[in-house]
Amino acid sequence: MSNSSIVDTAQLLTSLLIRILSVGFLIDPTSISCFCKTRMFFAQFSILVALGFVIGILPIIIMITFALLTFISIRTIASRNIYIERLGRDCQLTAMTLIYVVSIMFFYYVRNQVIYVLIDVHFKRFRQAANKLTNNQVTPGMEMN
């Protein structure tokens, strides 16, 4: 099985999977013309399965697959007689792709840590400091004798 047939098969399976997962968005029997209500199962399915898989895991799997296919292709090209410039460019492109695939996995972890530090830690400190400034103000009072 050649690389192009593997890629074609992966594209076909991915498109079929996305179409199967998106059927729930097209046909929702709970929607009535003037009311907008959804089932809890459909909401959980769309958040956890459809969005989590299609947006989260599937792109990483596709990147890893294509990076491995490129790596295998470069290893087979290295044994043939080709121009050194082309081989150098192919090796550079493969290295860039593999580094991108590895770094994207760490990006998700770092992004979550940055969000936690900025929002949960520093924003709460800023809010506490702002509350202390507003709570310590003296308000004038009027006394009637």
UniProtKB/TrEMBL annotation:
For this protein, the parts annotated as crossing the membrane are 7-27, 47-72, 93-110
- Which controlled-vocabulary keywords does the entry list? Membrane, Transmembrane, Transmembrane helix
Q: Which domain of life is it from?
A: Eukaryota
Supply the name of the protein.
Uncharacterized protein
Q: Which organism is it from?
A: Adineta steineri
